[in-house]
Structure formats: C-alpha cells, structure tokens
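Researcher: Next sequence.
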Amino acid sequence: MRYDLVIFDNDGVLVDSEPISNRLLAAYLTELGHPTSYEDSIRDYMGSAMHRIHDLVQERTGRQLPPDFDDVFHARVFAAFERELKPVPGVADVLSKLTADGVPYCVASSGSHERIRVGHRTTGLDRWFDEDRIFSSQDVGRGKPAPDLFLYAAERMGVPPRKCVVIEDSPLGVQAAVAAGMDVYGFTAMTPAERLAAADQLFSDHGELADLLV
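Model: Next structure:
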C-alpha cells in the first residue's frame, strides 16, 4: 500500500447523495426566486460547504438567502435520504479491503456532521466509520477548495499529508487535495473527467479504486 491514510469525500463517493441533494437544492433556490436547474446545481455547488452557496447567491444577485435556509434545506434532504439514499456501489468492498489490510481511512466532507451521520446510518455505512474517522467542514474555518479540512483530518489521524490519498468526485475537492499536498483520485461516475483533470488518477467505479490503491 502506497499510502498511510485514505481520505474519502462523502457525498457522491461513499453515499449516492449528489443526485438527491442537487435536485432539492435546485428546486429550493428556484422556489426562492433564484432560478437554478439541476445541471446548474451540479456545476456550481457540488462539493461545496453551505457557506459557499450563500456566498455565491449573494455575489450573483445581491440578495441574501433566508436565515433558515440551511435548516429547511437539510430537513428536505434528510427526509429524501430516508426514502431514497443508497451507498455508492462497491464502496463496502473497498472499505472491507482497507480494514482487512489494516490501512487507516476516514471521511472528510463539506457536509455537516449531522448530514454525514444521517447518510451513513441510512445506508449502513455507519459500521465502517466511528466518531474518530469523521471530519466535516464544520470543524475548520474554510471549506473546500481550501485545504484546511484535509489537513485537519490528516493531523487528527496522525499522518503527514504526503502519505495521504484523497478520493474525490468534485473539482472543489480535487483543488483542496492538491492544495493540501496530497495525492488525489478523481471519481468520474457523475463528474466529467475533464473537470477532474488535476487529479493524479481517474476512476469510474469502486472496483477500479481497489486496484489503484495497492
């Protein structure tokens, strides 16, 4: 194994949440008078912490989102997760192999701790991630594309950045991993490969990832 730590993004990499959350985000922004298509949401907000959504809307329109925006959005997302959310195909096999090989891993997500836990509990992935393996943009001052979250996760796991690999599916996450001085593998299941071109490796399913990590 070339790495001492595998850092997984959560949404779209561990849980198949991006289609759900971006559909709901586009609908809610449109409802609030900011017309947004599903494709717009994927392009502009996929991989973002919530504060970036607020910042971009205000930058583009001069208007602030409502104070309860995050709470309303998360309530809608969590309800949809309970009905629809599945793990990304093959991810349990990857986690099982890392565990069997004794390779440390963790999750570092732009999502809130609550969102991560709801998603893992719904999909059964909570068996793989105890509290000490879960890191959120809530834990640091700046979310992706800043490197802070990945650097924080590596520090907490006791591994230098150069010995870490990040598994990401968003351009913002790839930028953050590169800025952190870590290798990064780009998951192209939902994101066009050209948008993840800065990654060290690209893969389209988790069966390929298991082979890349050895």
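Model: The first strand starts at residue 5 and ends at 8. The chain has nine helices and six strands.
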